[in-house]
Structure formats: C-alpha cells, structure tokens
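Following up on my earlier message about uridine-diphosphate-N-acetylglucosamine. Here are the inputs again, as you asked, copied directly from the submission form:
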Amino acid sequence: MSQNCAVILAGGQGKRMKSDMPKPMFKVLGEPMLEWVIKACEEAKINNICIVKGFNSNIIEEYINSRYKTVLQEQRLGTGHAVMQSNDFLKEYIEGNTLVLCGDAPFIDNETIENSLDYHQSKDNSVTVITSVVGNPFGYGRIIRSNNGITAIVEQKDANEEEQKICEINSGAYWFKTKDLLKSLEELKPNNSQGEYYLTDTVSIVIGMGLKADAFASQNSNVVLGANDRKGLNMLNQVARMDVINKHMENGVNFVCTDGIIIERDVVIGANTEILPGTILKGNTVIGENCVIGPNCLIENTKVGDNTKLNYVQAYESVIEDNVKIGPFVHIRPDSHIKSGCKIGDFVEVKNSVIGNNTAVAHLTYVGDSDVGSNVNFGCGCVTVNYDGSKKARTTIGDNAFIGCNTNLIAPVTVGNGAYTAAGTTVTKNVPDNALAIERGEFKIKEDFALRKLKKRHKD
Ligand code: UD1
Ligand code: CA
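Thanks, got it. Here's what our run produced:
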C-alpha cells in the first residue's frame, strides 16, 4: 500500500458567500468543490485522505459520511494551523509524501498531481509548491525563485513592491516529504500581518534546515481558480460547463447554441447527437448516438438509446431505448423503462412502469406502476388508478391492446392481449384477451330540455 497521503483543507467559512454552508461544499456542475478535489486525488491513486473541517463542520462530516478521515480545526488560525490538525494522520504515513490541497480550488487534476509528485521525488525536494503563472497575481502568494528551487512564498499582504510584480503564484497545492512537513509545522509562528500560521512559511523553514524547496509550474492554469463569492462560483461553473461541452464537441456531439445547457461531468453522449438549449443532463446519464435532446430537457441518471428524440422532457432514474419520441411536456419518473419505438406525447406522466415496444401514449395520460405490452395504443386522457389511499397496486396491459379515451384502470387489474376498453370506461375487473370492456351509464336525449327550462324561468 502506498505511503503517500493527502490532506484537504476545508475549514474555511467563505464569509462572502453569505451562507451557513462551508465554502468547499458549494457546487460546481452539481458536485461540491470538495468532491472535485477528492476525485482528483482518487484519479491520481491517492486514497489515504484526511479532510480538515472547521466552519459548520457537521455539514462536511455528513457529506463525507466516513468515506475518509476528517479532523476538526476548532479555531481558524491559518493554513499551517489547519494542516497541524492532521498530525496524527500524517504520522501513519511518515515514510511517504503528503499532498496538501485546498478544498475550494476544484480544478486541480490528476495529471498535475502525478507530474508534480514525479518532479518532487526526482529532485528529492522536501517541499514542492504547485504554481501557476497568471496575468493578475493580486491576492495570491508570490513565488520567490532562486538558482536552485525557491526561497520563499510571500503573501499579498506581506509583499513589497518588487515582490508584488511577480506573476508566478502559489496554487495552494503542495507535495511534502511527510517527515519534513511534520518537523517544519513545529516551527511555524504566526509572525505576519494576519497573525496566522501560514503553511507557506514551511518553505523558508525547510531551507533553514538545509533541505530543498522547489516549485512545479502546472500546465493547467485553472488549478488556482477558486471562488470567494457567488460571482466567483458562477465563473467556476462557467469554466467547468464549457470545458465539458467542448469535450463533447470533440466527440462529435452537436451544439448549435450552448445557452442554458448544463452537462455534469460523468454524463456520456454518443456522436451525432444534438443537444438543444435549456437542457440539463445530470448524474450518470448516458445518451446514445443520433439523438436530439432538448430544447428544455432535464435528464438525471437515465440511459437513453440511439435515434431517440426528447423535447421538453424531464426523466429521472429510468431507461429510454432506441427510436423513441417523447414530448413535449412529459415527465418520466423513476424506475420507468420505455422500450424501442415508443411514442409518448404531450402531458403524459409515466412512473415505475414498463412501456413495451412501439406502444403509443400520445396525450394527457398517467401510467403508474404498470406493465404495458407492445403495440398498445392509449387514447387521450387515460389513468391507471394505482393508489386507493392506503396502498399502491399494479396494472397489466397485454400486447396490441387498445385503451379507449378517458379509460380509468382501477389497479390491480389486467387488460388481456388484443383487448379493447371503450372510451370513458372505468375498468374494475380483468378484461380477457381480445374482449371489449365497456362501462357507461344509459345514454339519454331529452328533447327541448333547454326551451322548457327557459319557459319555466319566464313564468317565475
Ligand atoms: C492561500 C496561500 C496563498 C495561495 C492561495 C491560493 C497561505 C498562507 N496562503 O491563501 O499563498 O496563493 O492560498 O488560493 O496558505 N483553511 C482552513 N483553515 C484555516 C484557513 C484556511 O481550513 O484556518 C482552508 C480554506 O478553507 C481553504 C484553504 O485553506 O480551502 C486556503 O485558505 P485561504 O484562506 O483561501 O488561503 P488564502 O489566503 O487564499
Ligand atoms: Ca483562497
């Protein structure tokens, strides 16, 4: 097992977010920033992770849910102080290297982590700071280079005029030799303008010990990006959103216009599929080839086959097969399976049901807790009555059945293969194969009803 480990700093509040939620829990493309950082570690095969929590720590604790170790920093006395809280954890990996990351800088990537570790080890550094060269370094710690590595990191508030001009900045991510990190943490003093224990001071401390500090400049300039307020968070979302969309374009997915399109990172889309504005694809959604998705679809954890068209559809935790046409204004609720060739039209809701091949449910219909065969036709306004106020029951409909307009199917009930229900029928008993179920009141005509009524009113 690897002796390398990671400490993720997530103790900060993020006052300018104006929220009770710790900043690392704010979401970028549907996932907390902290989760992005954890995933980058996992992708770099670093699985010994310790998360430092502080402000409203219960929120982070509940989210992590014992997946990884968490330690509490009761008072926020700086980034160095935050790392000190993980001392006991670090001692378990004393022979290896420690990666320190900020829980609110989501775009750290596994390549940067792996390449900087290679550099760190090949140079036998005690600390390797992951840096980036930026146009506007304001607010970041500046890197002071020497012939043989770096000599210091100077924080914005402590930097003199010359130092403020330096554009190579500290991303807030580092590799340390764990034993040197533990030693230098003991030496940290809050002697600076903010009265904090700066992790960045470990650089001059290790140099003072005759050890080596160096910097690894990341190719990914986004590694430094973080959010201090809602505008910053919106900017991170925008960067991540376009990054994902660009990758899909490279894979042959078409976007005529990207307005309002949000695709989470794990979504898979086949070539020649077109995504139209207002479409949000979430979770583990998989979309096949040659589909048209949108405008205005919200699809979550759903598998969609090839050649399928979804227009103004919301679908959750379901499977929609090939050559299906759904929409507009359709709600596919969890555990539904819409088989190939189906047509589901406007104002239809499907829940926890199987809809067989080539079945049509064209308008204003509710299909819940049902097993529907293939080539079934639903008229307009049908309802599977699946709930009696205390328990749910299923409806079964055979192949080639015809469900007339405004049919109510009182579950549990079965309509046989090839059977018909007449328009307006409330079906309370099973319908045999090929039969017709009809249940209507007697039809009457009352001649001149309106005229008689009018006369009566006139008399009064
Ligand atoms: C830090 C670096 C700076 C670097 C910048 C990159 C120091 C002294 N400075 O500055 O050189 O350019 O990051 O973004 O380290 N945190 C805690 N407990 C604390 C303080 C912070 O857990 O007591 C966490 C925060 O939640 C955050 C991370 O540490 O995830 C960085 O803290 P932040 O206050 O943003 O550091 P900066 O001042 O931006
Ligand atoms: Ca910061």
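One observation from looking it over: The longest helix spans residues 230-250. Hope that helps, and feel free to reply on this thread.
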